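B., you asked whether I could sanity-check this one before it goes into the benchmark set. Here's the sequence:
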Amino acid sequence: MTSESSFANRAPVPNQCPPRRPRSPAWGLAAVVAGCGGALVLSACGPARVDDLPREAVSGKVTLDGKPLERGTISFQPASASPTSGMVSIVGGSYSMPKAYGLVPGSYKVSISSSEGSGPSEKLGDVPGKTPPPPKELIPARYNSDTTLTAEVKPGKSNSFDFDLTSATTPKK
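And here's what the prediction gave me:
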């Protein structure tokens, strides 16, 4: 008796799956098409709403000493009992918060920060694992930790806020 014939005449072992037939490549293609089609249908529904708050888009420009602030962050903290705050990156002197993630109408304290570029955290000769010093803040404290900046977000308006910052110790009047 050959080994092939003994395999064919063997009784099935409990809890063992029967041998699988190879599927044609069409099944794989069908799965990919179905997956992509489902993704397209879901993406056509538009962006998911974050909540039902009456949010407004917020955008603007930030300059330091008359030049666009290359990179940094701008933060809007409620000055009153507003349910939202927001923070977004400043790139090339501009920032933008889309309506879905924007702010509800109200008064906000604005903080702007920018730090020196990040280099390697450890230099040759440093003790490994030593915590590097915090990056140097390039924006004066009156625009971040001791901010004097404000913004009033209004319903149905453009809500574009431009901030002209100076690095001088006393701001221009």
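One thing to flag: The radius of gyration is 30 Å. Otherwise nothing jumped out at me.
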